[in-house]
Amino acid sequence: MSDGFLSQEEIDALLKQKTDEDPVEDTGSSEDELDNDEEKDSYIEEEDDNDISTMEKDALGEIGNISMGSAATALSSILQQKVNITTPTIGLTTQEELFSSFEAPYVVIDVNFTEGLTGSNLFIIGNRDAYIIADLMMGGDGRTGEEEIQLTELHISAVAEAMNQMMGSAATSMSSLFSFPVMISPPLTEFHDFTKEKYESPLRDERIVVISFNLVVGDLVDSQLMQVTSLEIAKQQAKVLLDPSFFTQAAESEAEETTPVVDEAEVEAPDEPALDKPKEEMEPVEMVEPAGMAQAEEPRQMEDPIGAEDSAVLAGVGGAVEEEEPLKIITQQEQRNLDLILDIPLRVSVILGRTKKPIGNVLGLRPGTIVELDSLINEPVEILVNGILVAEGQVVVVNENFGVQIQNIVSPEERLRKLK
Hints:
Blueprint (H helix, E strand, L loop, with lengths): L7 H43 L3 H26 L3 E12 H6 L5 E10 L4 E7 H11 L15 H26 L4 E2 L3 E5 L14 E11 L3 E10 H12 L2 H44 L8 H6 L2 H14 L13 H8 L8 E4 L7 H5 L17 E5 L2 E11 L2 E9 L2 H8 L1
Antiparallel strand pairs: 1-6, 2-3, 2-4, 2-5, 3-7, 6-7, 8-9, 9-10, 10-11
Helix pairs in contact: 2-5, 2-6, 4-5, 7-9
């Protein structure tokens, strides 16, 4: 050493000594790191099996923010109050742990996906919050005293209508987010006291994901709205958002599985009546054909493919040949006459339900009054054309507008009988 500085030889000697000592220390360090890595790997594998990842939680939070934002707008327009549904928090638990923790009555809303997504979602809201929402919908001020709140059938119906509007708007937002149609069934709403009786949950899996939203309605409600779904369904929704091709691949695989079965049913069923019955009708026509040219026009009319197909279909639907005989085959002139009226407008009406009220009740109607109909929640609505029943369907929400999804069309024979 000279002037307090190390020489090059001394530096090399120190480095060599350090190198000789390092392997022993590194070996222990490497083993510790290896053990730590194995522990981390085992923890990650366990987390994947029993939990949702941070990325999946973020995806579910994004879906919740967008869908509940639209739901808040719909509820605000109904209640004429400022509504905020924000700050989702996501947790994983079991159905038993969640439902056993409820110490007060709640209103439970069951929403099922019918198109796009699958599965069931539960929305749980407090008894007092549901009462305030229902009271506002019925023209009240939403103020509640200290007395115990009792929900009537009328309150439950009002909450069901509010949730129907909210979930319809939420489904529309999810359709825009996922870039494919998302449809829901009408929500099923019920009052349940978890402290007195066990809740029969529609969710199949015991492990569930709970998404809690902060619900604020003016200065009347500052509470929570809980969305509960199974772990499997929650992972599926997150997967659709994180990997857009997931839905396309699933739809294609379902189409490949179902298409051959449909083809066989469509080919085999109509072949026998479509081939056998026209033969019986055409044989006497061929016997008359050689008689002369003057009778040639009649066979041409009988061989009209439109008339033959219509008669075969009507005979197959009606199940008896006698019903086919009084039907007249449409000629080309008659078809042209029908074409002249195709642009005449028809009035299409949808009847949600009917009820009878005495004059005194009708005179007592005021804004906010709810008129209870005879129809049930899941009962199909009637679709009339110029006052004639032609179909039955289900009310849906499309782009924030009401619509009707056709479920059943009245058969041609039944319409013809009513016309007669």
